[in-house]
Amino acid sequence: MSTSVAFEKAKAEDRAALVGYLPAGFPSVEGSIEALTTMVEAGCDIIEIGLPYSDPVMDGPTIQDAVQQALDGGVRVDDVFRVVEAVAATGVPTLVMTSWNPIERRGVDRFAQQLQDAGGAGLITPDITPDFAPEWIEAADARDLDKVFLVAPSSTDERIAMTTAQCRGFVYATAVMGVTGARAKTSELAAPLVARTRQTTDLPVGVGLGVSNGAQAAEMAAYADGVIVGSAFVRTLLDNRSDEQAALKALAHLTEDLAAGVRAR
């Protein structure tokens, strides 16, 4: 199911969509399935599943910690597809966020087919731009998979237009320059970037990097179509790693707070 369905539903309800991220295999494969389904039940409209990779491009220390735990636990690409299948079965659009190298190593067409077979909506590819991804664009177009590329405050208007022309599902706008991580304040660069992006496309624009609570989600939902949250979810699990039930309860509470935020714009 494409993410466009979730964005259309949110728009009909006059709110932004809540997009939640966790890496597959953290704290374990089964644990990540349980955590992600908890997030769905508590109000996430779209789920991003991170493919653990040893050489991250955007990941800040919080997500790096979780990804390293997943890698130490032996998680593999096939495990990622297992998590996708379980989460997609809830009916919520489910994306994989991954560095390009694991896709290339597996084979672009094979990766795309396995993603489709698992019920995945598409890919977020933070470290490759459309002009360097013709194989993925072809494989995704053949299967109607979402192609979510990133735009940043440093992107020129020409680069934004080139990028959005190849996106399907939504456009991922990175609100801050630098790596991921929950922040005390959301970036003042986000709203202008969303405005510039909207000049080039009718696709929804989701904003990521930095949101950690409902108040920040409401602030971002005032101008974005989607609010993307990752590090705050990961931190919640890390902070409660010794008690699985407490971790899930805290995760549900955070999700509910964020879901209320995207509805309070």
Automatic annotation (TrEMBL):
InterPro entries, per database record: Aldolase_TIM, RibuloseP-bd_barrel, Trp_synthase_alpha_AS, Trp_synthase_suA
PROSITE patterns: TRP_SYNTHASE_ALPHA
Reactions the enzyme catalyzes: (1S,2R)-1-C-(indol-3-yl)glycerol 3-phosphate + L-serine = D-glyceraldehyde 3-phosphate + L-tryptophan + H2O
Any GO molecular function: tryptophan synthase activity
Domain of life: Bacteria
GO cellular component labels: cytosol
Lyase recorded as keyword: yes
Enzyme Commission (EC) number: 4.2.1.20
Role, per record: The alpha subunit is responsible for the aldol cleavage of indoleglycerol phosphate to indole and glyceraldehyde 3-phosphate.
Subunit annotation: Tetramer of two alpha and two beta chains.
Protein name: Tryptophan synthase alpha chain
Record gene name: trpA
